[in-house]
Amino acid sequence: MTAADDTPGGPPLSKRDFEDLARFRFGIRRYLRFSEETVRRHGVTPQHYQLMLALKGFPERDWATVSELADRLQLRHHSVVELVNRAQAQGLVDRAPHPTDARAVRVVLTAEGERILGRLSALHRDELRRQDTALFPPTWEG
């Protein structure tokens, strides 16, 4: 974080701004709690769900490298390697040769990973619909 990141811009926040920010933060936390509890009930860790979602949602292809996943998940490379190892042991993902870089591997969803991800993501979509406006970012007065 730089010094510029610590200096707020614009006018001071109003009471309404604080209420909107608190509502948004509460919505995020409620959604994350829902997600954590739901995936665990289905035998998957929250980290595995996030990994599978990052793979399926990767732009323009159905696989990603460990480095790309580390960026998407905001984790260190070695942490993603361990996460992929655990997910592979559970049959959720697999490794395949990279088409152009012999030093890298593609991480891909297995059929079982696809099935579990589809079910869990549909439940997440339904929860987002239920939360409706709780997850709309605040609109600032100033």
TrEMBL record:
Pfam families: MarR_2
Gene Ontology process terms (BP): response to stress
GO-annotated molecular function: DNA-binding transcription factor activity
UniProt protein name: Transcriptional regulator, MarR family
HTH marR-type domain residues: 14-142
PANTHER family for the chain: MARR FAMILY REGULATORY PROTEIN, TRANSCRIPTIONAL REGULATOR, MARR FAMILY
InterPro entries: HTH_MarR-typ, MarR/SlyA-like, WH-like_DNA-bd_sf, WH_DNA-bd_sf
